[in-house]
């Protein structure tokens, strides 16, 4: 970037959609990972975060080396699609600059797709539609990782016409929900009409197109939002016990910098806890923060990034609350009062778990089905840890 251009932070992109639309699988396809296959019953139960450096994204697209990418990378937030997790979806979205709504082309708009649209409208967040599972169209000819227009050209007339009517149906259904959409390759009003990027998370068709839209189209649309800011904005995802590190919290750093030695306040049900950051860890690029793996240690981390924080007193940190950095000269009392307000709010909006049973039944039945197919012992339901 030229010297007079403002420094942009990595945009945070939330993946939303109905259960099993292929959100996690799409990320697996982009990362070259197998997170989805390891989820209990194939159901995501926790928000995830993955940093995709610009250079890795470039490798997956047809972008030439000399074409600038204005952002250092992209932090993608995976959310659960099951109805039980509406609070997590809303939390995920509130951290984001932009979203990808994943729709299964064989199913069209489903209940949580529509719920996501309401959220997006309420928060006024721009989004792209990934119209996923195109490889499921009857007779689809696989064209691994091909741009979608090329892949479509190779299809039979039957596949093309099935694609066309399913796409038309989806466009109509979006219209009914108040959104104008068009396949991105025919969309010449990109600021007003929502882009649809057809994809297959299975064989990768259209994935380069989706990535390209995210790094080329997106920063132009939301440049102002991405201006780098020193004020720390940081949200707690979850608390973890790590066998070597002790208690850690996973956070999304939305803006600003976190440093080792920073004094921070976390929100707990017992009240604000003031502590010092001992260590800052990130997973390796293209790896999921919540997946157990190797971490890199940092003296400081810049936004947007998913970070694992090591510090004392984190045990009771509440998911969804802010982590507040107290700078030298800041009024500690005032910062603690702000934390207290958040705690009150978080306690008041805590979900009751009435939908948890339904979720548990679904996970158990899927595990049982898989066990019977693979002749594995069935896991006892009470051994499952469900996180609603
Ligand atoms: P939740 O997180 O539970 O809401 O689901 P999800 O949206 O993350 O969907 P997930 O990635 O778990 O995929 C659901 C199922 O669809 C899995 O069996 C995937 O293998 C399959 N799937 C996802 N994307 C595709 C695709 O593009 N093509 C095909 N054929 N299957 C897909
Ligand atoms: Na799933
Ligand atoms: Mg998932």
TrEMBL record:
<feature type="domain" description="Tr-type G">
    <location>
        <begin position="8"/>
        <end position="225"/>
    </location>
</feature>
<dbReference type="GO" id="GO:0003924">
    <property type="term" value="F:GTPase activity"/>
</dbReference>
<keyword id="KW-0648">Protein biosynthesis</keyword>
<dbReference type="GO" id="GO:0005525">
    <property type="term" value="F:GTP binding"/>
</dbReference>
<keyword id="KW-0396">Initiation factor</keyword>
<dbReference type="GO" id="GO:0003743">
    <property type="term" value="F:translation initiation factor activity"/>
</dbReference>
<keyword id="KW-0547">Nucleotide-binding</keyword>
<comment type="similarity">
    <text>Belongs to the TRAFAC class translation factor GTPase superfamily. Classic translation factor GTPase family. IF-2 subfamily.</text>
</comment>
<keyword id="KW-0342">GTP-binding</keyword>
<protein>
    <recommendedName>
        <fullName>Tr-type G domain-containing protein</fullName>
    </recommendedName>
</protein>
């Amino acid at each position: 970037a030229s010297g007079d251009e403002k420094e942009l932070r990595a945009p945070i992109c939330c993946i939303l959609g109905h259960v099993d639309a292929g959100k996690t699988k799409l990320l697996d396809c982009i990362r070259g990972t197998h997170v989805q296959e390891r989820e209990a019953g194939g159901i995501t139960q926790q928000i995830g975060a993955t940093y995709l450096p610009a250079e890795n994204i470039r490798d997956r697209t047809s972008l030439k080396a000399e074409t600038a990418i204005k952002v250092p990378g992209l932090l993608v937030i995976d959310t659960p699609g099951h109805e039980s997790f509406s609070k997590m979806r809303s939390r995920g979205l509130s951290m984001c600059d932009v979203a990808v709504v994943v729709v299964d082309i064989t199913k069209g708009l489903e209940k949580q797709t529509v719920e996501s649209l309401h959220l997006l409208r309420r928060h006024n967040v721009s989004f792209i539609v990934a119209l996923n599972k195109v490889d499921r169209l009857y007779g689809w000819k696989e064209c691994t990782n091909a741009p979608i227009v090329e892949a479509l050209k190779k299809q039979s007339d039957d596949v093309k016409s099935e694609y066309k009517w399913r796409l038309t149906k989806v466009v109509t259904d979006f219209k009914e929900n108040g959104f104008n959409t068009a396949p991105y390759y025919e969309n010449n009003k990109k600021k007003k009409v929502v882009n649809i990027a057809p994809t297959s998370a299975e064989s990768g068709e259209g994935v380069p197109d989706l990535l390209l839209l995210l790094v080329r189209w997106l920063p132009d649309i939301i440049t102002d939002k991405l201006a780098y800011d020193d004020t720390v904005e940081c949200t707690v995802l979850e608390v973890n016990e790590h066998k070597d590190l002790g208690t850690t919290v996973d956070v999304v750093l939305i803006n600003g910098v976190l440093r080792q030695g920073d004094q921070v306040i976390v929100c707990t049900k017992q009240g604000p806890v003031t502590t010092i950051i001992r260590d800052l860890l990130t997973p390796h690029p293209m790896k999921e923060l919540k997946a157990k793996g190797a971490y890199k240690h940092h003296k400081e981390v810049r936004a947007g990034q998913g970070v694992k924080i090591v510090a004392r007193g984190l045990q009771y940190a509440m998911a969804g609350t802010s982590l507040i950095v107290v700078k030298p000269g800041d009024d500690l009392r005032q910062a603690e009062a702000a934390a207290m307000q958040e705690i009150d709010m978080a306690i008041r909006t805590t979900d009751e778990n009435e939908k948890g049973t339904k979720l548990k039944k679904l996970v158990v039945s899927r595990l049982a089905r898989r066990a019977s197919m693979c002749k594995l012992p069935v896991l006892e339901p009470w051994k499952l840890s469900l996180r609603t």
